[in-house]
Amino acid sequence: MPLKSKQPRIKPLSPPYDEAASEALEVLGHSPIQLFRVWARRPELARSIAGWGSYYFSRRSALTLRQRELVIDRTTALCGADYEWAVHVAGFAEKAGFDAAQLASLAAGRPADDCWDAADRAVLEAIDELQATFDLSDDTWANLVAVADDDAALELVLICGWYHAVSFAVRALRLPLEPGTEPIAAH
Predict the structure, then answer these.
(1) I need a labelling partner for 181 at 20 to 30 A (CA). Which of 100, 131, 171, 174 fits?
(2) CA atoms within a 13 Å half-sphere pointing along the CA-CB vector of 110
(3) pLDDT per residue over 49-102, tens digit each?
(4) What is the 3-state secondary structure (H, E, C) of 32-94?
(5) Cβ atoms of 127 and 38 closer than 8 Å
(6) Phi-psi region of 8 (alpha: psi -120 to 50; beta: other; left: phi over 0)
């Protein structure tokens, strides 16, 4: 297998931004991290991505912040997406209440690890099963709905799929870590 280049394949925009890129970054509603600055090269793409992101990062989401971050962190870890893992762990791990053992388990452990309660375990089992089979068994679905609800289960499936796409993008783009963040292996 050929070595992967370490240089970004698409250079993120740098300030000063033109009007369309500035508007796209504003719509994304976050600091202009490298991924958003790549998306802002195509403002119409950035605006459509922002629509999805603004929903599941809003208070309208059926998932709790902790559940959402379990989905994102575990999915990006399973996909080997250091960039996205690092951004989320730096920005949300503390807010989600993850301790060092839980971050280590998200990075390379299993849902059965002792650091998880039954509710977290049901979420993680669903994520791992989606990753392995691209589906959920009736038992896994029932366990997930028992700790969340139908709406949260639907969002879990969608966010897991979304973060597969994001993981594909950040890996293929070869984005380096943001300053002050750590790769999956650091946990």
Answers:
(1) 131
(2) 4
(3) 766 555 555 557 889 999 999 999 999 999 999 999 999 999 999 999 999 999
(4) CCHHHHHHCCCHHHHHHHHHHHHHHCCCCCCCCHHHHHHHHHHHHHHCCCHHHHHHHHHHHHH
(5) no
(6) beta
Per-block average pLDDT, block size 10, for the chain (187 residues)?
A: 66 89 81 81 76 57 93 98 96 97 98 98 98 96 95 92 93 94 95
Entry field: residues in the chain: 187
What radius of gyration, in Å, describes the C-alpha atoms of the chain? 17
Copy the structure tokens of residue 128.
Answer: 């791992």
The structure tokens listed for 79 are: 């996909």
Cα separation, 186 vs 166, in Å, equals 21
Is pTM beyond 0.70? Reply is: yes
C-alpha distances out from residue 78 to 10, 54, 89, 131, Å? 24, 24, 14, 8
